[in-house]
Specification:
217 residues, alpha/beta, Rossmann fold, 7-stranded mixed β-sheet
Length: 217
């Protein structure tokens, strides 16, 4: 099987904790199901990707119920409870209430490691604690866990800070949220996975499918 043959296939993708879809922006030839808990954010995603199936619901449960139905699974678990900025600036310096890290992130990684029947990738911030599971790669500001052969590298958004103006982050990612009446736009944009990272990992997945098909033939 050639790259052109794989690329011509429609890849069934499950995009969990989808946000507004930064990771999805440059994917092609794919049938995407996106799951997002926040209905307002899900509406923005649907506007940006009208052909995707968008589900407003619990991504954690959806993964458990539907993981066998896809060729590729992407997880962008909420990062606030793992964030260095929240812990060291918010909690330690500004007196924010301390919160438990949301360990369902690691539940999902372990679940996929032992049960996934497809390629998968999970991303989150580099946390304020030592990661409980060794990541596969450190790309840009985020750690990635995957069954794909990912490599670490820096990106253009490596040095984004929480104080960056919304317009600065929008310019960096060539995106505008001006027409959307949604709160916490800065946080939404901070959670926006660079489309180039999404494409790079998607391309690794395609190459892996070629390898698996060739080895199985």
């Amino acid at each position: 099987m050639t790259t052109d043959t794989i690329s011509a296939e429609t890849i069934r993708v499950l995009n969990l904790y989808a946000g507004i879809g930064g990771n999805r922006k440059l994917w092609t030839n794919c049938d995407v199901t996106a799951v997002e808990m926040n209905a307002d954010i899900a509406a923005v995603y649907q506007d940006m990707f009208p052909d995707d199936k968008v589900i407003v619901g619990d991504a954690h449960q959806y993964l458990l119920d539907h993981y066998k139905e896809y060729d590729f699974i992407w997880l962008s678990h909420p990062c606030q409870s793992h964030s260095r900025i929240r812990q060291f600036v918010g909690v330690k310096a500004k007196g924010f209430p301390a919160i438990y890290p949301e360990l369902s992130l690691y539940q999902e990684i372990i679940f996929l490691q032992h049960n996934a029947v497809c390629d998968w990738s999970a991303e989150n911030v580099n946390p304020y604690y030592k990661p409980l599971i060794e990541p596969t790669a450190h790309i840009g500001r985020h750690l990635f866990w995957s069954n794909l052969p990912l490599e670490s590298y820096k990106t253009k958004a490596q040095h984004l800070r929480s104080r960056n103006a919304i317009s600065d982050v929008e310019d960096l990612h060539a995106i505008s949220l001006d027409k959307y009446k949604i709160p916490h736009k800065r946080q939404i944009l901070r959670n926006y996975v660079e489309p180039e990272i999404g494409k790079a990992i998607f391309d690794v997945m395609l190459k892996n499918r070629i390898k698996e098909t060739t080895n199985g033939s």
